[in-house]
Protein 1
Amino acid sequence: SDAQDEGLRQLGKRLAQRGRNKWWAFEGFSRIDCCLITSQCVLFVEGKRTENVSLSTLWFEQRSQLWRNVEAAKEFAGDKQFAVILAVEREANGTTALAGAASSLDGSYPHLDAEQRTELARHLIGFVTWSEIVTRFGLRPECLLDRVPT
């Protein structure tokens, strides 16, 4: 009872106002690495260089960071189209992260039915490597000065 009272008090003081009283207010705020916005769509980029995708949140072990970002992108985008893409150092990192996301889909969205989970899953569009980004946009390789050895 005391813990519930304290949780409600803290929620009332900080998160509920900014979280618009949504259930996910307990998670705190997402910190998206890159958000690209056009008149028609929103793209969130979750960038990973030396760390891995978090398979859980502090308050909910089954909630994957990627699925949390997809849901945040949907909320942020409103009526626009939306997607989340992962940027990683190596293809193996992306493959591993997407496999982990696939296995955590149901557990990350217990508040949604199967059809809603399937719909959200379409918005995690894959991964790209940092070297592909550098090449595609004609950037100098030095822009990745802290490059992880391959």
Note: The CA atoms of residues 120 and 145 lie 35 Å apart.
Protein 2
Amino acid sequence: MKKFIAFDIDDTIAVSKQPITPRMAELLRALLEKYEVCVISGGLFAVHKMQIVDPLTELGDVKLEKLHVLSTCGTQYYKQQPDGSWDTIYKQPIPEEDRKKIAQVLEESAKELGYWCEDPAGEIIEDRETQVTFSALGQKATPEDKYAWDPDHTKKYALRDLCQSKMPQYEFRAGGTTSIDV
């Protein structure tokens, strides 16, 4: 018998960096009645709170104590406490020197391939302490712009591969629609 169900967030149960739909909130509420539910994605907890937790909270009686939120690709784990607050269960930071080098490799490689956006919607490279994320059009780009940027994922994979060759000690993952998560 299943006891635990896990989902990716972006482009699985929600549009990239957008709140879940009311229908999805109802479905998750029903799942939380019977199962432990885990959601995981590359974003920070604040984004996941807006995408998942807040819409569920608006429904009222939801068993949020059964929700497990794994942010930054699982390197940060959050769980609701009995008092309703959210607690960090664990956090696995990358050393600051390495985060700076990763950001440098991402920027240099994006420029080398001609993928560096000169007019981004928000930060292109975000230091999330436990992960460094490159967002080709900026963190606040619209879903429509993101989907149009690289529909066949060739840009994202080329950038990932180039970065990986320059810094093999870290894993460069083609994450969301326009992102590379390290």
Note: The mean pLDDT is 94.
Protein 3
Amino acid sequence: MRLDTTLDFEGGYLRSLITSDVHDGYVNGLNDKQVNKYLDGVKSSHQTFQSVKDFVIDNDKSSNSILLGIWDDKSEIHCGTLRLHGIESQHRSAHIGICIFDKNFWGKGLGRKSIVAATKWAFDVLKLRWIEAGAYKDNLASQKTFLSAGYSWKYDIYGKYILEGKPSIVKIFAAEISSQ
């Protein structure tokens, strides 16, 4: 699925990624152990230019996911990604994940602003009513980001997910609008 426009927010914007957006910083960031510590799929194998391009293509062709790049207003290349996936029309729900792979942009609010913009778009345009995010218990930065973006903690999943070889707790956050 592809977004036909950009989603602007103060200091940056989101737009659908295309294969020409894949750059060395993106690939290298995904392979950085500090960046990918909490990214399940990414760290399972070494990322290459081709594997990242394939991921972009797969999301572009998908009918239930959308992969957006996160741009800072002053940058020509994106510094992160935000993905809505598992978009479900019957329940009007989806999952959201975010990665700021360029550590120069950590702590600058781009994650929160991106989540707010994408969530508003998904509610307004896709007519979703529930967007869910999971964060490992130890990933305090992600938890704080989703909370500051208006998501609320809903429940914990104990022992299902493995982090660094051990069963871990994943905290589930959601943004929701009331049913009409």
Note: Residues 110-124 form the longest helix (15 residues).
Protein 4
Amino acid sequence: YNAGLCAQQAEEYAYAEKFLKESIKLNYEPAQSYAMLSNVLKQQGKTDEALEYLHKGYEQYPDNAYMLVELINHYLLGGEPEKAEVYLDAAIKQDPKNASFYRAKGTLYEKTERPAQAEEMYVKALELDPKDFLAQYNLGNIKLTEAINFHKKVQDIVDVNEYNKELEKVYIAYESVIPYFEKALELNPNDKNTLTTLKELYFRLRTKNKVYQEKYDKTMEKLKSL
């Protein structure tokens, strides 16, 4: 096991594979060995075998948090995010106060085009950890997407009077998004994505309220300084 660990850290993956497989045969630190072996195989491009060992380890040690996280990451970051749901549910059942699991499930729902469920998960994550920047930022993005989609529908309106009436609602929708990203900026003051999004929102609303022109100018200054 220790030889496998050292080989993995030295990026000698073939040796690490050999020693970790032996560690599993000897039933030494089996849960960790399965997870490490899966990673080592992945590093060698043996993705199918890596997943096979990950599942074998999970079947034998379903309560192992490390194994669960590895399976979640494999599916969530791969091409089959929907398969991560069963493992996220298991992780949440084991540790229901872990905000990162709810955030990950929110990401899963976004990837599978279920924004309402994603929003619910991000809100839950923030209830458990109000300082979770990614949950806050992702929640803002969901709200921003809703505003953008509403704006697109309004642009298709032909009648001028109806268009102008609905356009006012568009401005209100964009304005309602701002607090989500301002909160995200409080959590991570130098995040360029958040600053850029706020810059664009302030720019849209600058003629409606001079406060947004001032905020736009300050945000531009901050972006230039980064």
Note: The two ends are 45 Å apart (CA to CA).
